[in-house]
Amino acid sequence: MLDRIALQVVEVVFALAIYFLPSIIADHRKRHDILTLALFNACMGWSVVGWLLALYWAHLPNPPESLARDVAAQRRLTRMTAFSSALMARIDRRAAKHDGAHR
Predict the structure, then answer these.
(1) How many domains, the chain?
(2) Same domain, residue pair 31 and 57
(3) Which InterPro entries match (predicted)?
């Protein structure tokens, strides 16, 4: 009886280790988003697709730490470029209108 309980405990621990293998791999690889990945693994790991996605995610390289800052800077640059282009187009239209009025 005690042997059977011990075997069941070992089976449960093994099953949990397999279930959370993506989270274990992510922790071993020191991913910055381990908590998000572990929560995804816990919630979606029951489906084969969710488990495979978590495993794939665990093997991806860490994103750069300055990613949010880089995205914000790129958005700011894009907005400034769009503003400059619109301003230049307006200046060109006014200049063309002004030149047409003086002829």
Answers:
(1) 2
(2) yes
(3) Phage_imm
Looking at the structure, do residues 9 and 56 belong to the same domain, yes or no?
yes
Integer CA distances (angstroms), 92 to 78, 80, 86, 99, in order: 21, 18, 10, 10
Structural domain boundaries, residue 26: 1-63
CA distance 81 to 91: 15
Q: Is the same domain home to 42 and 19?
A: yes
Under 8 Å between Cβ of 80 and 88: no
Residue 93 sits at the vertex; the CA angle it makes with 92 and 97, to the nearest 5 degrees, is 115
pLDDT band at 102 (very low <50, low <70, confident <90, very high): low
pLDDT at 103: 59
Alpha helices in 1-103 (DSSP H): 2-19, 21-28, 34-44, 48-59, 67-101
Distances (CA, A) of 27 to 10, 20, 21, 58: 22, 11, 10, 8
